[in-house]
Amino acid sequence: MYRPKGVADHRYIGDKRSGAVYDLDMVPEDDSPAAAAGRPSRAVIDELVASGRYLCFAPDTLAEARNRGYRLRGG
What we know:
Blueprint: E1 12-15, E2 20-23, H1 42-51, E3 54-56, H2 62-67, E4 71-72
């Protein structure tokens, strides 16, 4: 489980640019290709947080993300 600074208390993070939501519990600790198969990469999450174009949900649930029009992405 990888949680960058600024979103460490959240499980789901939405990308305002694409409408994608990422499950931070699915981000592997290391960025090896085997660990990242079908999961969002640390690089994607780091770029999103650095851009400032993300949204955290309250309550922090996938249902709330879907309610706001976001769709789950693997990476």
